[in-house]
Amino acid sequence: MAFTKICSTSDVPLGSIRQFEANGKVIAIANVDGKFYAINGECTHMGGPLGEGELEGTTVTCPWHMGQFDVTNGKVLAAPPARDVACFKVKVEGGHVLVDA
To answer: Residue 16: which CATH number?
Structure first.
């Protein structure tokens, strides 16, 4: 496991999702009730930016075609995406979000 610092915890306010790049990957970080989750930031439908989508609870809605994913496990919740997105392990240290991606 090689954890990479992605952002500060303050970069992702409570109840929001933001897009970052690290190690050549687009990663969306979500803050759900103070717990951070990381998923692949590109929608499996047409590559929409999930980190620019709307987060409601644990559900992120892609801003391009309204597909939905669960940020806790990457599972598709609503079409048009047919494939889940990858999830990454997260840890918080010293006010930073680190991801194993």
So the answer is: 2.102.10.10
Domain that holds residue 13: 3-100
The neighbouring-strand residues paired with 10 are none
Say if residue 95's pLDDT is above 90. Answer: yes
CB 49 within 8 A of CB 35: no
| pLDDT tens profile 18-60 | 999 998 999 999 999 999 999 999 999 999 999 999 999 999 9
CB atoms within 10 A of CB 81: 20
Provide the number of structural domains found in the chain. Answer: 1
Determine the Cα–Cα distance for residues 16 and 62; give it in Å rounded to an integer.
13
DSSP 10-61: GGS-TT-EEEEEETTEEEEEEEETTEEEEEESB-TTT--BGGGSEEETTEEE
